[in-house]
Amino acid sequence: MESGNKESFLNFSQKSILILLFTLILCFILGFKNLVFQTTFLLKKFGEISIDPEIAFTNNKPTFLEFYAEWCEVCKEMAPKLADIKDEYEKDINFVFLNVDNPKWEKYIRNLNVNGIPQVNLFDKDGNLESTFIGRQEEKTIKESLDNLNNNFQSNSKTLSSEFSIIKENKNYQYSPRSHG
Question: Of 75, 78, 122, 142, which residue is the catalytic one?
């Protein structure tokens, strides 16, 4: 009879340890999830709260337009800084965020020759392209350009960083003159 008690005690002890380990792992994953996935959620939020580009180009305010993708590591890294910049400048400047994986924005992707992301285009209040940034940019550089844009300083510049993501080609969005699409 004693061996039966030992087996049941060991089973109870093992179950307790497993439950404790499972609880610790679950808590770690839930806590760590916010750190890992926070930027992805931030990028999704950008897309949801973005001003429609057609409105942005016609409301007589300068426009910050960023092309991004949720899989882009550089986009994820820049997202918290861009959120701060948006909070600081959104009264005076339109902020438009377009996901390159959304076929709805294909027209803008083609017109602005987007082939690396993140790509930020700054437009004056009349919708004229003033600056283009491709790849990782310093917060200071973007803020200086936004200040110049607010002060009607024309720059017509293009800044390319060596750290960017090449847009993944998606054959579902391609069409030819004969495709009826």
Answer: 75
Question: How far, in Å, CA of 143 to CA of 156, rounded?
Answer: 16
- Let me know if 27 is a catalytic residue: no
To the question of pTM greater than 0.85 for the whole model, the response is: no
Q: Are 76 and 164 in contact (CB under 8 A)?
A: no
Helix, strand, coil percentages, rounded to 5, for the chain: 50, 15, 30
Kindly name the residue from 51, 65, 69, 72 that is annotated as catalytic: 72
pLDDT tens-digit readout, 107-154: 999 999 998 899 999 999 999 999 999 999 999 999 999 998 877 655
Question: Based on the domain organization, do 17 and 76 belong to the same domain?
Answer: no
> Does 59 share its domain with 9?
no
